[in-house]
Amino acid sequence: MLRDVTAVRYVTPLRSGGSVPGVVEADDLGTYVVKFTGSAQGHKALVAEVIVGELARALGLRFPELVLVHFDPAVAAAEPHQEVRDLHSASAGVNLGMDYLPGAVDLTPEIARSFPVDPLEAGRIVWLDALTVNVDRTVHSSNLMVWPTLGTAPPRLWLIDHGAALVFHHRWDTTAPGRRYDFRHHALGHYAPDVRAADAELAPRVTEELLRAIVAEVPDAWLAEDAGFAAPDDVRDAYVGYLLERVRLSAEWLPTDFPSREQLAAEEADRAARTRAGRPAWLQQVPDLHGKPAAEQDWSAHLG
Questions:
Q1: Which of 51, 61, 124, 193 is the most exposed place for a label (fewest CB within 10 A)?
Q2: Closest CA relative to residue 145, chosen from 184, 181, 183, 98
Q3: Tell me: the pLDDT tens digits for 22-35?
Q4: H helices then E strands: how many in the chain?
Q5: How does DSSP classify residue 290?
Q6: CB 96 within 8 A of CB 35
Q7: At 66, is the secondary structure helix, strand, or coil?
Q8: Euclidean distance between the first and final Cα of the chain, in Å?
């Protein structure tokens, strides 16, 4: 069950993916990355964070603890940016926090060249993403963190950021549960993910009982605005029914066609060459950052 905490100190905003989550310290002495209810993505992004994150944890994947953060905008009164202050003002009340992983770094393509990932672990993550239609874990935006990066414990992969998953909840009446999505450029595709073994292991564990326990964690207020449903419990029933049917139809959507590292490199080189060829002469030598972050994300830099 998601714990309730209260924000007592606002540390810093984190600008990521068009949203402005923030790092806060709470009354339980924990530090959390908070995604605000007033953000442009709306409540459905938070619903997806809860459902996919808690499902990942139930299936044994590493995912930081989620908490419900009670936020008073007065805590961040000293924030200098007007857009962030407006976001805070629109987010008074219950928001979603994720346990902060100090020193964690993104699994970038550079790190992925040498970071080891077992094919079965890669398969489990790809399988979860395919089940929950999370097409936002790509080579250049992995939404995977490597942690810890200091000390004697070995670094491991941690899943984050599932707000773009469950795309079917934006169009309940037009998205078939057996629909196949393109996962060729999944962040872990070049690790030869054993998705078939993951399906055999994980599919039987995604039961109606498990899904009902997970959707019960979503606050009613985040479900009440879903058009076409009379009550929050009706929305919960829709999530359970859809995901159960999608599990049943896994043979129809199971992703298995992943390019090798060499194929990915060749595709990237070809795309970069075509991009350069389409530029005017004076832009030919400008570095191509298409789809790539300008800098590696290191959360510890924000804590001072």
A1: 61
A2: 98
A3: 999 999 999 999 99
A4: 10, 8
A5: T
A6: yes
A7: strand
A8: 32
